[in-house]
TrEMBL record:
This is Tat pathway signal protein. Pfam families: DUF7405. It comes from the Archaea. SUPFAM superfamilies: Dimeric alpha+beta barrel. It comes from Halalkalicoccus jeotgali (strain DSM 18796 / CECT 7217 / JCM 14584 / KCTC 4019 / B3).
Length: 414
């Protein structure tokens, strides 16, 4: 892929574009652009035992956790079964990244997850294969062995980490990289993206992003609203596996979605958008504001509002995405810790919906609640029309991963 043209882009757009392209030349361009940026070094002894312990080192906005700005999901198919020597090398490479970068959004956060295909190599079969989860999708499935989620506010950190693991650069943030996993990589795939206020609005020139109805300049996501409120997210404890060989780890599901933003912005009014994303009551009572600025640490879904989802489908002919997904809460507690981000992979707008949960079954249950086939059967709401945001989404890819605790992160053998 060719590098983005610095001459016609703002600095922020350029840096996002470089992450999307990836590779050694994107990294070189990024280092040049960010030559004035100093990224704090890290200390492996200060890194927590859970790979998914990110919340404490992300920044905050009132009571909500603010996600890191740049993301890469690097999926790797191994060329052969890993040996103990490979495990040591991979662990050493990951520990070097921890020395090079502070464990924070200003440095680098990462988590290595493994697929059912990987676990077949080591004779463990407790992680389910990904499957289609609705009647109206035919996604591709992850076909690799492991997937590394890299996240940082600095594009150079995610790019350098990726390139160093692949053996393309020998130094990261001034620290010598003395091992990598290049010889183990059979094939690879990368999913990339970004999240943050104003970042989607800069994509008005991406095919599929309408320019007639501009995305709100404060919105962190393409569909124009804030998301990930504290009270609608599972805690890191809630998603942590409690028993078995991977106690202390978690599971990850990645659902990659293309979004029909033209239809969303050009056919629907703000009232409809709020009703379809949150609930009819949110729209009727103006609870959300233009992009979610009226909400603080909660999406304002009371237990009563969640319980009346079917009633809303019957009375108003529309149900909210968040409202119906919240039906899957257990004892009032959300099951998923969402760490999703926008993407323009394939030069079209979308979302890599990444969520952590204790077990993949929990994701499947929440996804069923979001799909809301029961609502369509019992009301005027269609299987996709007015049924939350289903009408605008096409699921392209799914993957299931087990994210071991940090001490088992390098090619685990349970
Ligand atoms: C383009 C795709 C999507 C967009 C734009 C989107 C957006 C949103 C927004 C704006 C909210 C309300 C704010 C909040 O509570 O954080 C929300 C809540 C939620 N979404 Fe999504 N979402 C998408 C896909 C998904 C998918 C694939 C799932 C998988 C099941 C999902 C599950 C949830 C859950 C569980 C909640 C919180 C419900 C609760 O309060 O308990 N979303 N989403």
């Amino acid at each position: 892929m060719t590098l983005p043209d610095r001459g016609v882009l703002s600095r922020r757009e350029y840096l996002k574009g470089l992450v999307a392209v990836g590779g050694a030349s994107a990294l070189a361009a990024c280092l040049e652009e960010e030559s004035n940026v100093e990224i704090p070094a890290g200390d492996p002894d200060a890194v927590p035992a859970r790979q998914h312990a990110w919340n404490g080192v992300l920044s905050g906005d009132n009571e909500n956790v603010v996600p890191a700005r740049h993301h890469v999901l690097l999926s790797v198919s191994l060329a052969r079964d890993p040996t103990d020597e490979d495990r040591e090398r991979f662990e050493n490479a990951l520990a070097t990244l921890e020395r090079a970068y502070e464990w924070s959004h200003e440095g680098l956060l990462f988590a290595v997850g493994y697929t059912p295909q990987y676990f077949e190599r080591v004779g463990w079969d407790s992680l389910p294969e990904p499957t289609a989860l609705t009647d109206f999708e035919s996604p591709e499935f992850e076909s690799g062995d492991c997937q590394i989620h890299l996240a940082s506010d600095h594009s150079q950190a995610v790019l350098a980490a990726e390139e160093s693991l692949l053996g393309e650069v020998e130094e990261v943030n001034g620290v010598e990289m003395d091992s990598d996993i290049a010889d183990l990589v059979g094939s690879r795939e990368r999913l990339t993206g970004f999240v943050g206020p104003g970042l989607p609005a800069e994509h008005q020139d991406t095919p599929g992003v309408p320019d007639s109805e501009p995305i709100h300049e404060e919105a962190p996501f393409f569909m124009g609203f804030r998301s990930g409120f504290e009270e609608s997210q599972a805690t890191e404890d809630r998603v942590t596996i409690e028993e078995g060989p991977f106690a202390g780890g978690t599971t990850r599901h990645v659902e990659s979605i293309a979004i029909d933003l033209r239809q969303w912005y050009e056919q629907d009014s703000q009232f409809q958008r709020v009703a379809k994303l949150f609930s009819h009551q949110h729209a009727a009572e103006g609870l959300v504001g233009e992009y979610g600025e009226k909400l603080d640490d909660s999406n304002a879904l009371s237990a009563e509002r969640i319980a009346s989802t079917l009633e809303d489908a019957r009375d108003h002919g529309v149900v909210g995405h968040a409202q119906k997904a919240a039906r899957a809460r257990e004892d009032g507690e959300p099951l998923l810790l969402r760490r999703d981000f926008n993407t323009t992979d394939g030069d079209r707008p979308g979302l890599h919906f990444l969520s952590l949960q204790r077990e993949i079954d929990e994701f499947v249950r929440v996804r069923e609640a979001m799909t809301g086939a029961d609502l369509a059967a019992d009301s005027a709401v269609g299987s996709i029309t007015n049924n939350g945001i289903l009408q605008y989404l096409t699921v392209r890819r799914r993957g299931n991963y087990l994210v071991p605790p940090r001490e088992l992160r390098a090619f685990p053998d349970p």
